[in-house]
Design goal:
alpha/beta; 9-stranded mixed beta sheet; 11 strands; 42% helix; disordered N terminus
Length: 405
């Protein structure tokens, strides 16, 4: 409790570049606990944070990073939406261009002329969204790094909610709800509630209360997440091999980073009022896109299993019930059994005329097909020790008292 309190205090102090700014914050609030902080303590904290820099040119409070590739028109609208976001301190915006051949740079330069906060352009030559995000993190100046996409729209208090959540909960990252902006008519074959389809079009809704990510709920989406800068010093950057590149729909870089972060003790919280609206383009509202995305989802999960030993269906599980079980062609037997059940359910839902229900089972089978493809390709490779791997089970058997430490 004391450590969390100190972290919140440290965070609040770090948001003000001078002691005068700090006094302005508490002016008129005689009950503020910050009144008791001596001037020399505040100045010492500021000097430690800023090094030899002038206090008034210290690091930005928040750096927003947008990674983009050949979507200049969508990006223009996203930058316009960001212009209406309330700044919780000093904010800058970094647009990382991942090898675009359109007029992306011109869009950024045009926006920079009239945007309410500084806008910078950075070109990243290595293919992949997470290569671009890593470059943006390295080049950013903020103590908080807020990441989003080039096809998002924002509530005015988006950044305020993020910064407040990091401070309030003393955590390393926060994320929030992602609602759709339909670019075409919503198909009747999409379920109304959360399902596999929500992964495909990057929607997220974990309800109306604050919850901890990775504890019964999935991780934040890359379109709506904010991090403390120092967490990347502890955890490292994102693994671009598991992220999306041209010609693929690999999609596990975000999850792999958060699982790695959890292993270091980092925590994050879902904030229902931290809201972003995500454009669902009409061309993505086609069944073939959903099938392809889930197929690559299966490939990505199998790659994550090989690399880190996480359960392929539920990587967040720290003690998967099927860990180390028998495999056929590199595929765990329980997944093969589920594929057989899903095939029967698909047929039954189709007969009943439940179009949305049938498509959910079809999508899971596409996911399974991706797992089969990748696990067969990797069948001769050793799986890393992890929660779901045979290596981890063997280690646990050889060290029966390890859990007591």
């Amino acid at each position: 409790m004391q450590q969390a309190t100190f972290r919140r205090l440290n965070w609040r102090l770090s948001c003000y570049s001078t002691h005068e700014d700090f006094l302005t914050l508490i002016d008129g609030d005689l009950s503020s606990p910050f009144k008791e902080i001596p001037v020399h303590l505040f100045l010492a904290r500021s000097l430690l944070s800023c090094g030899s820099e002038d206090l008034r040119t210290a690091a930005m409070d928040v750096s927003i990073i947008i990674c983009t590739a050949n979507r200049a028109n969508d990006l223009r609208d996203t930058l316009a939406s960001l212009a209406h976001v309330t700044c919780p301190g000093r904010v800058d915006l970094l647009v990382v261009d991942n090898r675009s051949s359109d007029h992306t740079r011109q869009v950024v330069e045009d926006a920079a002329r009239h945007h309410p906060f500084p806008v910078r352009y950075l070109f990243e030559g290595e293919a992949g969204k997470y290569a671009a995000l890593n470059a943006g993190i390295k080049a950013s100046a903020g103590r908080v790094i807020a990441a989003t996409d080039d096809d998002a729209r924002f509530e005015a208090d988006w950044l305020e909610r993020a910064v407040d959540g990091l401070s309030r909960y003393g955590c390393e990252f926060v994320g929030g709800r992602v609602d759709p902006v339909w670019g075409g008519q919503k198909p009747r074959w999409l379920k109304e509630n959360n399902g596999l389809h929500a992964k495909v079009i990057a929607l997220l809704d974990h309800g109306d209360r604050v919850r901890e990510f990775g504890r019964g709920i999935s991780w934040p989406l890359g379109v709506n997440v904010a991090y403390r800068r120092d967490v990347f010093e502890r955890v490292g950057l994102f693994d671009n091999r598991l992220g999306r590149k041209t010609g693929t729909l690999r999609n596990q870089a975000q999850r792999e980073w958060h699982l790695r972060a959890r292993a270091t003790g980092a925590r994050g919280f879902y904030l229902p009022e931290m809201v972003v609206h995500h454009l669902v383009a009409a061309e993505r509202l086609q069944k073939r896109y959903f099938r392809r995305w889930l197929y690559w989802h299966g490939i990505s999960r199998a790659m994550l299993y090989l690399q880190s030993g996480f359960d392929m269906e539920e990587p967040e599980l720290e003690c998967p019930p099927h860990a180390g079980e028998r495999q056929i062609g590199g595929v765990p037997v329980h997944l093969i059994r589920k594929a057989l059940r899903s095939t029967r359910s698909l047929a039954w839902q189709t007969i009943k005329g439940n179009v949305a229900g049938a498509f959910e089972y079809e999508l899971w089978l596409c996911f399974f097909a991706g797992i089969v493809r990748q696990r067969w390709a990797d069948r001769h490779l050793a799986v890393a020790a992890g929660p779901a791997s045979a290596a981890a089970v063997a280690d646990a058997g050889a060290q029966p008292n390890a859990a007591l430490g």
